[in-house]
Design a protein that fits this description.
Blueprint lengths: L5 E9 L8 H4 L2 H15 L3 E7 L9 E5 L3 E4 L3 H11 L12
Parallel strand pairs: 1-2
Antiparallel strand pairs: 1-3, 3-4
Helix pairs in contact: 2-3
């Protein structure tokens, strides 16, 4: 089994009942995931994307985490995703969007 270099988690604000209720989902996290997937493929990055439940950083959403580096990002949109992936291509964080 191939293990990707990066695992990107995107908060979709799902609660235990399965309902998307939080900020990240309401601010378009599902469409951001699609954009992220397309960009990863276009760039040939060795990464997978997963949706998560609430990451508990609602005041900074939409939010995502990049492992194994444990980079936490907030306020993501398509432009921010581009900046994050540009940095990731150099195995670096996009410092201006780090939240933790």
């Amino acid at each position: 089994m191939h293990k990707p270099k990066y695992h990107i988690l995107v908060c979709n604000s799902f609660r235990m009942s399965g309902e998307p209720q939080g900020i990240c989902n309401k601010k378009g996290a599902p469409s951001l995931m699609q954009y992220l997937e397309e960009e990863i493929l276009d760039r040939g990055l060795d990464a997978i994307v997963s949706s998560t439940g609430c990451l508990k950083v609602c005041d900074r959403g939409p939010a995502m985490v990049v492992y194994p580096h444990n980079f936490w990002y907030g306020g993501i949109n398509e432009s921010v995703i581009d900046t994050i992936l540009d940095a990731l291509e150099n195995d670096e964080p996009a410092e201006e969007y780090l939240i933790c």
